[in-house]
Amino acid sequence: MRAESLRLEYGSVYLGLGEPRPRLSWLAAPDGRQVQRAYEVSARIGGAEFTTGRVASRESAWIDWPFAPLGSRQAFAWRVRLWGGGADPGPWSDWQEAETGLLEPGDWTAEWAIAHRRPALAAAASEAEGVAGAGGTGQTGGTGQTGGTGQAGGTGQAGGTGQAGGPGPAYCARAQFAVPPAASSVRLYLTAHGLVEAEVNGQPVTDEVLAPGWTDYRHRVLSRTVDIGPLVRVGANVIGVTLADGWYRGRLGFNGGLQDIYGDDLAVLAQIECRLTTGPGDPRPDHDGGRKTLLGANAGWRTAPSHVTRAALYDGESWDLGRWSPTWSQPGFDDSGWETAETAPISAFSGLPVAANLPPMRVTARLAPVAREERPGGRIRFDFGQNIAGRLRVKLTGQPGSQVELRHAEVLEGDELAVRPLRRATAVDQVRLGGAGRAEFAPRFTSHGFRHAEITASPQAVQVGAAEAEVIHTDFERVGWFECSHPGLNQLHENTVWSMRGNFTSLPTDCPQRDERLGWTGDVQIFAPAARFLFDCSSLLANWLEDLSLAQRDLGTVPNFVPWLELGFPLGPTAAWGDAAVIVPWTLYQRTGDRRLLERQFESMTAWVDQLAAMADERGLWTSGNQLGDWLDPTAPPDFPDQARTDRFLIASAYLAHSARLAGLTASALGKERQAADYRLLACRTRRAFRREWVAPSGRVVSDTPTGLALALVFDLLGGPDRRAAAGRRLAELVREGGHLVQTGFVGTPLICDALVLAGFPDDAYHLLEREECPSWLYPVKLGATTIWERWDSMLPDGTVNPGEMTSFNHYALGAVVDFLHRKVAGLAPAAPGYRRVEVAPVVGGRLTWAAARHRSPYGLIAVAWRRDGGDFALAVDLPSGVRAEALMPGGGRRSLTGPGHFELAGPCRPADQDPDRPVHPHPAVLGGIPVAVPDRGSGCAIQVMDP
């Protein structure tokens, strides 16, 4: 057998790797039905070759680095060979090459080159007016609020001035460096305060966009390693960077937001190094030659405003192409009129550069318009057929000095762009043509959430050519797929995929369009199982969890969004939101087998549970603090989404029990049995207290809502089987009384279908899934949605937008139900961390005649597909080498399967045409003219908890 698809760490970074001990993974490609029984790893490091020898093990994922720790800038290669059933090993794999980045702050000799500092408030307003006159709008997009406690600027501490000066321009900075004839392996190490795009000798160094992404700059800023060898020449060279405010000092947040949150500077940190090739007899021992810094301290950076006269994440971007020189980043350009950049050592800022271990953001797709319409007033409207996060690229030809404006919206209302949901994010791009009279315009330092776009220009002065929408998100790998015989469920799944793409942009945000776009903990907590099935987003979530841990350490609790901003939102611990500290790491461990992540997050996980345990009342329940509860319960008023019917403290106490249990499982997985026992005891005590407070002996839950019952069932809070059966029957009654319309909000929605199946009512789960009236999952699908909406009724049946101030058409959270489609409808569920064992147990119903799911696990592709034809049920399962499955047939019977192999099973099943019709309740509840189910309250994500 042979090892294939070698992977280091998360498989997303090979040049600039940020781990001195990267873990190794591979796929075992068998010859026949072989299973890996041993492996040998060989590595070439610094001119020497090392080997582990034969290691008896069936593991092929997350293998600890078996050699000495790697240093910074260390180039290396590794390969592996495997033993299957015979005495001899298989062939060696191909070598996989990699190189570490700068692993320690002391590896940086360069200094921060500060291209601009934000002027005082009065000067900022004046500057904004000047920018508007130069081609930008100078719009403030909000009033701004003060916030933050630290000093702005050189200290790197949070300032949060909230200045209302409006979006500022981008700035250019350039520096010269010389490349010697003996240079090889020329590397650029790059990061920035703000957003940065770099060029060498007039050529972009990478296709990354919105770099370096958003982290808590008070603690760390991500750096990249770039191979610029193909772009340099012997002798004089120039590096040019363009810098914009971005997340570092641009306006962020709702209610006007904050500005200068992390500092008032706009700066680049760039270091260029090479290796010097050696000749025969060279005395230097390093076979790669010596290392030489080509650009470091005293680089002589020069800076000036760029042709990007306005750049803001929320408000958009403006260009004045009359200011642009195509040679500004090339040797020979006259920069005598530019200013000398101020410099500052790395130690001047608290946020230190760290090598990024997650993939960059890129343009991952380009969409042609499905419709182009000429509108009054010189407007051209495009419909791209898909709601996305990204930017518009358009070709323009016209008279020099002519100005073109681009506006964006997710939906139309009254045949016009619906911009009210954007709140104070104006989302307007502009370009003023230069002397050439033509341009291909795509903004570089902003992103918009849109399906529709309008371009306004004078038809007499400008001709608008081809346009396309460019999709932007973190460039992670797709690893999960689902489809079935129900077109509506397929579209729901596709909408969820697109909403994840629109919101996983260096961290998991809530929405991509309005003045918010924050890393809400509750959203990702409920969505994490679906997210990790669909895309290999482990590195992104691990990176975000590091910021969560840092915020938790600083604030004394887990905030409701990470990175945390002082926007006036309550800081105190909130159930289902703060529990992300426990549930997201545990979910990633379940889905990937990444034990090191648990080790890194264990202190954060236990700190959260310990905090809640200390807050519990004398009964052991969590009954205090600001709770968001079953957020966006469909019965809640539009402007009061927390006014749900389920008792918010029932939810809080349920989460305390659930997170305590997960903390105990985590401690056990890490071999910390004493702590495991403590958290098991806490979970047991909380469950008993929960039953005493909210569960009657009959099994009736006092907060008699679908969410409350689903929460108690899925989190196993009820006690004996009689109570569970009674609660399950009551849940089914409430769902039926509500006409199988959704009665749950953020917390209950991911649990409700699982709870019904657990209680023995799968047909009710299907009736709930397949309703098309509001509120339901398929109501937006029926109205033509291409992403998941924030509200069940973000758009009302008459085509008007929900009047609530908080209305997004691209919010992945309520799409968490697709995890149920993967695990229960298709029947592909993990039964051990990393899918080492799987449970194949399709739940048939809903008149579906077939369903299928595929997932690329750490051990290879797992596929499940079933079909029923009359009373005959056929199940096909594909397993990679070493993965075991327990297959449970709908008509009864169980079979154990061991990969590799393709397996086909058959048995009896209820025919699809005998699936029961949805019962019609004679008196459905009505809210505002829309039939709704009796409201309910729930919690958490549909997490399948498994013992390690």
What do you see in this structure?
Helices cover 21% and strands 29% of the residues. It is built from 15 helices and 44 strands. Strands 19, 20, 24, 25, 26, 27, 30, 31, 32 and 33 form a 10-stranded mixed beta sheet that branches. Helix 5 packs antiparallel against helix 6, helix 8 packs antiparallel against helix 9 and helix 10 packs across helix 12. The longest helix is centred in the C-terminal third of the chain and has 22 residues. It is globular.
Using brief descriptors, characterize the structure shown.
alpha+beta, single chain, 948 residues, disordered C terminus, seven-stranded mixed beta sheet, ten-stranded mixed beta sheet
Percentage of β-strand residues: 25-35%
Oligomer: single chain
Would you tell me the structural class of the helices and strands? alpha+beta
Q: Tally the helices: what do you get?
A: 15
Report the strand count: 44
Overall outline: globular
Residue windows where pLDDT falls under 50 for at least 5 positions: 121-164, 281-288, 923-948
Task: Describe the sheet with the most strands.
Answer: 10 strands, mixed
**Rg to the nearest angstrom?**
29 Å
Question: Gap between N and C termini, in Å?
Answer: 28 Å
Round the mean pLDDT to the nearest integer and report it.
91
Helix content: 10-25%
Concise account of the structure shown:
The protein is built from 15 helices and 44 strands. With 948 residues, the protein is of the alpha+beta class. The longest helix has 22 residues, at 648-669.
Q: Helix and strand layout, with pairings?
A:
Elements: E1 2-8, E2 15-17, E3 24-29, E4 38-45, E5 48-51, E6 55-56, E7 75-83, E8 96-100, E9 112-117, H1 121-133, E10 171-179, E11 183-193, E12 195-200, E13 203-204, E14 220-227, E15 235-244, H2 246-249, E16 265-276, E17 290-295, E18 302-305, E19 308-312, E20 316-320, E21 339-340, E22 342-344, E23 352-355, E24 361-367, E25 371-375, E26 379-398, E27 403-409, E28 412-413, E29 416-417, E30 428-432, E31 438-441, E32 448-456, E33 462-474, E34 480-484, H3 487-503, H4 521-534, H5 538-555, H6 580-592, H7 595-615, H8 648-669, H9 673-694, H10 706-714, H11 721-737, H12 749-758, H13 762-770, H14 778-782, H15 818-826, E35 828-830, E36 837-840, E37 850-857, E38 860-869, E39 872-879, E40 884-888, E41 894-898, E42 901-908, E43 925-927, E44 930-932
Parallel strand pairs: 2-8, 14-23, 20-30, 36-40
Antiparallel strand pairs: 1-3, 4-5, 4-6, 4-7, 7-8, 9-16, 9-22, 10-15, 10-18, 11-14, 11-16, 12-13, 12-15, 16-17, 18-21, 19-20, 24-33, 25-26, 26-31, 26-32, 26-33, 27-30, 27-32, 28-29, 34-37, 35-36, 37-38, 38-39, 39-42, 40-41, 43-44
